[in-house]
Hints:
By secondary structure, this protein is mostly helical. The chain has helices at residues 9-26, 28-38, 56-83, 90-120, 127-138, 147-176, 182-199, 201-212, 224-235, 244-277. The protein starts with 8 loop residues before the first helix and ends with a helix.
Amino acid sequence: MAPAKEASFLTALLAGGCAGTSVDVALFPLDTIKTRLQDPRGFSKAGGFKGVYQGLGAAAGGSAPGAALFFSTYETTKNMLTRRTDTKYHSACYMVASSMGEIAACLVRVPTENVKQKMQAGLYKATGDCVRGILKEQGVGGFYVGYMTTVAREIPFSFIQFPIYEGMKKKWSAWQGSEVTTVQSSLCGSVAGGFSAAVTTPLDVIKTRLMLGKDKDGVAYKGAADAAKRIHAEGGLGRFFMGVGPRTMWISIGGCVFFGAYEGSKKLIGSIVDKESE
């Protein structure tokens, strides 16, 4: 069986943008519920089930460039590393490539997350008000509050997700004697994403608290370590898994949509790019 064709930078860039927009828009309500469950004020005070599309504009605006940056960086790094490495070390290549992708994507994702999560929690009603509020209170740096925590969450997530995703695709492909279909890629992405989401929920809770800025008494957090200490004081280890259900469900379904949209777009865009380059 011939190896799967490598995606070009342009193909990965465009396909990643399509995938990111698809999943963020389709599953936004689950993300909102997860954020409100993690809010220190409690689910009801954060908005409950009302206005679950609050902040959708911010998410949609950042999803395409964020995902495009991730996949263009991921595919370029993966292709470069796997060409020069024995197949038994390819899992490590996927880990390094996904880490580089996350670092790049977070340059767009974190400002978007800061706006989106404040709106999901009901702190602002309009995107413009939220942007102006962050600028007034914290300056430009306010959009990057939680950047290192987000990277610290995303890298372990990708370390787990992408080797599982790529490994499942390879085994499925070898078993059937042909390249996996878009639907099969979707299922691999769903399993890999759901497992990774559950394991990394504590990091997500810390990141959410930092982005919301203050605890239920209005006291600001002084970094990730302080947030972790105060979360534990609220109710022990169980508090670090608040929202694990919606997060796992969201990313399981999201992984299915995301990787399906990515692989489908990659094949379509790749065929167009190939024709134009001939």
